[in-house]
């Protein structure tokens, strides 16, 4: 069968996104065929479209963008157990910008009844990222002060909510007063508008000069090195996104005096096995059920409007999570 998709035949701006038709054979052994009703829109898709190094492996053109979607099982390949036709699932696997696709069964997770397909598609990647950032890479403890850059964005609101639920004091940075309101409504105790106030001095003032335990940075080039000044001794700066550009070489001596730690992680290593993916998803969904997280969709775009979606996301015009609707 043929299915509608969005492909690229070269890297570049939103104009390289093209509607296409993709052949989808019956699922092979170990695969499940998924009909998607929601496709996640994530900044990683921008990196992939532009050809920047990041979470996606290099693939020959044409490339179908994206990595996360949600919908229902429509066919099951030989040797697959634990799933049934019509079951609601979400998927973490390359090639998400298409309506029907075959995916390895180990990259699927069941979606609880309380979570809609739209919410699962829009937030699964971010939710799994928040899980490893807050619970594994740096395990946030009650009483910690944490700094979340881009606190009104799709990742920022999840990190802020969950860190607060874990007992942290959450300081966020944003670029406008409208985004300040969003950040305050989603877990931040304090919000700094970096266009009006230097965030380093503000963070040190809010922590009585002690600094924060961890910085969660999806911005990259513009904020990473100054963020090191915000850390307490033995604190960790985590750069998990590069919206303003890659963090390039910096002087390691900046870390020496206070034994600082830096990390540039990627989600795929934390959910590499089916077991790790299932465990991370279970932790995420348990946090939702416990009221620690409010998973929301704040922007919806038809799949045919993918150009607008990419422009809005890349220009930082969005807050919260966005989804493409096939």
From TrEMBL:
SMART domains, A to Z: PKS_ER (SM00829)
Superkingdom per UniProt: Bacteria
Gene Ontology cellular-component annotations: cytosol
Pfam families: ADH_N (PF08240), ADH_zinc_N (PF00107)
Keyword Magnesium carried by entry: no
All residue ranges annotated as the Enoyl reductase (ER) domain in the record: 12-324
MF terms (GO), sorted A to Z: mRNA 3'-UTR AU-rich region binding; NADPH binding; quinone reductase (NADPH) activity; zinc ion binding
Transmembrane segments: none
Key words of the record: NADP, Oxidoreductase
Signal peptide: none
Protein name listed in UniProt: Quinone oxidoreductase
């Amino acid at each position: 069968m043929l299915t509608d998709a969005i492909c690229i035949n070269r890297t570049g701006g939103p104009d390289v996104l093209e509607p296409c038709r993709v052949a989808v054979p019956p699922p092979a052994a170990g695969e499940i065929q998924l009909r998607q009703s929601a496709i996640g829109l994530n900044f990683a898709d921008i990196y992939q479209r532009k050809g920047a190094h990041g979470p996606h492996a290099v693939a020959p053109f044409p490339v179908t963008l994206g990595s996360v979607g949600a919908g229902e099982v429509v066919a099951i390949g030989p040797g697959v157990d634990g799933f049934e036709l019509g079951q609601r699932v979400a998927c973490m696997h390359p090639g998400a910008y298409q309506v029907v696709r075959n995916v390895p069964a180990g990259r699927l997770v069941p979606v609880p009844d309380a979570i809609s397909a739209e919410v699962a598609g829009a937030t699964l990647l971010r939710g799994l990222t928040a899980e490893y950032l807050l619970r594994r890479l740096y395990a946030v403890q009650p009483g910690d002060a944490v700094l979340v850059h881009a606190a009104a964005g799709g990742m920022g609101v999840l990190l802020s909510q969950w860190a607060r639920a874990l007992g942290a004091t959450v300081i966020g940075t944003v670029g406008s007063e409208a985004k300040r309101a969003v950040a305050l409504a989603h877990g931040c105790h304090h919000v700094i508008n970096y266009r009006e106030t230097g965030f380093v001095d503000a963070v040190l003032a809010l922590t009585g000069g002690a600094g924060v335990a961890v910085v969660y940075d999806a911005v990259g080039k513009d904020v990473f090195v100054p963020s090191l000044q915000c850390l307490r001794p033995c604190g960790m700066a985590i750069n998990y996104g590069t919206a303003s550009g890659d963090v390039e070489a910096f002087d390691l001596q900046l870390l020496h005096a206070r034994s600082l730690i830096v990390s540039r992680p990627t989600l795929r290593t934390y959910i590499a096995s089916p077991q790790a993916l299932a465990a991370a998803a279970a932790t995420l969904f348990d946090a939702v059920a416990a009221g620690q997280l409010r998973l929301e969709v704040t922007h919806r775009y038809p799949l045919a409007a993918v150009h607008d979606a990419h422009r809005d996301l890349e220009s930082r015009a969005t807050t919260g999570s966005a989804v493409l609707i096939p």
